[in-house]
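tokens incoming
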């Protein structure tokens, strides 16, 4: 049989190698590792030592892999990264046994570099691991160097690590864990100890990895990769399972599906019934509705799925909230059409919009240098720009199919524009947030103020001089709708809570699934204390007692007949019982919280309440986090919510 010259040279070298020449870490590197990999065919130009992770992971401190050699599939330093890495070798001093620490270090760096193999050696012992992304590594060689004096062992090692063979292995190759037993279902395998090693090997290796805007969360049973929404964009995610039955299945969810299906009930257990995408079938089986796919999962898979969803959705939610906070958009209604996404600032008469838009034709940024030459002609919208950087995109939305002839009102929208997104993402700034400000990207709040207080008066003045248009005729046609909510800091009357409570009640009415009591405990307790000293002669006691009795008798839609009318002391007693109840349970049906909120609204709206400023201040603090959760979900989740069992593909 033909034996390649390179293999013969490798075997000859390893058989005559004298380990006694190894005295230091440097000897292990220069006298053992480098010659061995030269005989295995690895060019020196394809090697790096002390590789820095700084460029690969902006979240990670500037760390270097010390006492190491890393081989890549290319000699182009720019392209030597996780896509081209082949082998990581960590070397120890002779006669040291810190293999456990070195393996931990190698696994950490393998998460980022994703090599095909990683190797640990002290010159006397050699451990070679095959690395699988998100799976447990496989130990393929563990022995002393003298073992390699056996020609067959040395040949096997050569064909495992030879450069020409290793660099042809696809980086996306995943261990298929092929075995005849895989025709049996996973529950059967679990009941038989002899198969447990198969399942253990198949499970993912838990990790949390964030590279820029890409988040990967891995638990033993579930892997979830997500592109978080960047700046004004949309995200998406892919979910995979390690189980025998579901291996190889990749479930993709778009932005709307992530918000509409996964966001509700974060940090709750699967069996609590607080998540829209999970339905419990029996004690250890769940049905998961993910995108257009329905899968049956075990209780362990459901638990890992929830842990992955929690981490991804919390990061996803934080990104959206950060966007809204930076751009000061919370006070404006979000609108989305096939061709427009933005926020409604105010409305104007059609004739005012026409002269607003006509003004930009006279003041294009390329035609002058005055403070008003800040516009770029852009179809029917107003693009505030100096060419280098856009400030804002202002778009008209006609109330009847864009036709200015059919309606006299035009909605003014602060648009989230794709070209603006591209500009921000391609800029030299570290993050899009750095561009927010008067000289950069304008916030929605500033844009509205600028339009009403500066731009429209300037437009009116300019056209009045040119065309003798009366100023008051235009002013009365600005339709600006003030917020009904008193700012939390300015609440000094108990009735100021009513708009916030009505928002919460509308949210709870739509919630459908169970709700965790953690977010309700302070709210229940503080507002029960706030309304405790209400005049007993409150109107509508029947309405209050009817709602409370529905909770007591567990019939949310029932019309309950009562033999006697309660007094207000009974109402407070019942509210106190509800406070005790939610302090001693993990979740309740959302309709119960809806009814309690209806009761509180009625009491505050119709009762005479004796309260202190201290009680008001405590109530503000208790209500704010619940209302912020309500605000986020009503704005970003419920527009995309559909029936959890939508008849999609089942697995």
């Amino acid at each position: 049989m033909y034996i390649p010259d390179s293999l013969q040279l490798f075997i000859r070298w390893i058989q005559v190698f004298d380990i006694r020449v190894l005295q230091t870490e440097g000897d292990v590197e220069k006298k053992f590792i480098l010659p061995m990999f030269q005989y295995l065919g690895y060019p020196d130009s394809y090697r790096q030592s002390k590789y820095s992770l700084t460029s690969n992971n902006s979240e990670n401190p500037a760390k270097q892999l010390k006492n190491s050699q890393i081989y890549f599939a290319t000699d182009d330093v720019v392209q030597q990264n996780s896509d081209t890495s082949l082998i990581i070798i960590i070397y120890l001093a002779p006669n040291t046994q810190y293999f456990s620490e070195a393996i931990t270090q190698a696994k950490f760096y393998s998460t980022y570099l994703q090599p095909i193999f990683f190797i640990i050696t002290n010159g006397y012992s050699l451990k070679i691991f095959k690395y699988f992304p998100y799976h447990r590594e496989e130990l393929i060689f563990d022995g002393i160097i003298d073992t390699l004096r056996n020609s067959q062992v040395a040949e096997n090692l050569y064909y495992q690590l030879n450069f020409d063979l290793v660099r042809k292995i696809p980086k996306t190759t995943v261990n298929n864990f092929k075995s005849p037993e895989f025709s049996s279902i996973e529950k059967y395998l679990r009941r038989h100890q002899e198969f447990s090693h198969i399942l253990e090997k198949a499970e993912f290796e838990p990790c949390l990895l964030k590279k820029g805007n890409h988040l990967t969360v891995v638990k033993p049973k579930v892997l979830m990769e997500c592109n978080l929404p960047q700046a004004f964009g949309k995200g998406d995610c892919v979910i995979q399972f390690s189980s025998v039955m579901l291996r190889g299945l990749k479930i993709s969810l778009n932005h709307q599906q992530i918000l509409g299906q996964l966001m509700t009930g974060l940090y709750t257990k699967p069996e609590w019934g607080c998540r829209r995408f999970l339905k419990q079938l029996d004690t250890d089986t769940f049905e998961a509705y993910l995108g257009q796919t329905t899968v049956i999962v075990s209780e362990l898979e459901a638990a890992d799925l929830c842990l992955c969803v929690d981490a991804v959705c919390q990061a996803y939610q934080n990104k959206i909230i950060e966007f809204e906070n930076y751009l000061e958009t919370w006070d404006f209604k979000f609108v989305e059409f096939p061709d427009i996404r933005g926020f409604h600032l105010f409305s104007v008469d059609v004739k005012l919009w026409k002269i607003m838009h006509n003004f930009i034709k006279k003041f294009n940024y390329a035609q002058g240098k005055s403070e008003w030459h800040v516009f770029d002609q852009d179809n029917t919208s107003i693009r505030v720009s100096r060419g280098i950087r856009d400030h804002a995109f202002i778009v008209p939305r006609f109330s009847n199919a864009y036709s200015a002839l059919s309606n006299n009102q035009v909605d003014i929208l602060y648009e989230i524009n794709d070209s603006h997104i591209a500009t921000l993402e391609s800029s030299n700034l570290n993050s899009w947030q750095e561009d927010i400000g008067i000289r950069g990207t304008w916030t929605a709040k500033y844009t509205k103020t600028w339009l009403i207080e500066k731009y429209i008066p300037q437009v009116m003045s300019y056209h009045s001089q040119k065309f003798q248009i009366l100023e008051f005729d235009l002013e009365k046609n600005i339709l600006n709708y003030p917020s009904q909510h008193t700012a939390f800091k300015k609440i000094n009357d108990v009735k100021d809570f009513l708009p916030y409570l009505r928002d919460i009640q509308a949210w709870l009415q739509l919630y459908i699934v169970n709700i965790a009591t953690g977010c309700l405990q302070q709210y229940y307790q503080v507002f029960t204390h706030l309304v405790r000293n209400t005049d007993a002669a409150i109107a509508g006691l029947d309405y209050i007692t009817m709602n409370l009795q529905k909770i007591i008798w567990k019939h949310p839609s029932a019309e309950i007949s009562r033999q006697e009318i309660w007094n207000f002391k009974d109402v407070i007693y019942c509210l106190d019982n509800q406070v005790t109840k939610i302090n001693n349970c993990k979740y309740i049906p959302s309709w119960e919280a809806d009814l309690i909120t209806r009761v509180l609204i009625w009491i505050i709206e119709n009762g005479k309440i004796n309260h202190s400023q201290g009680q008001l201040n405590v109530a503000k603090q208790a209500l704010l986090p619940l209302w912020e959760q309500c605000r986020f979900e009503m704005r970003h989740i419920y527009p995309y919510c559909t029936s959890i069992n939508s008849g999609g593909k089942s697995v």
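note: The two ends are 50 Å apart (CA to CA).
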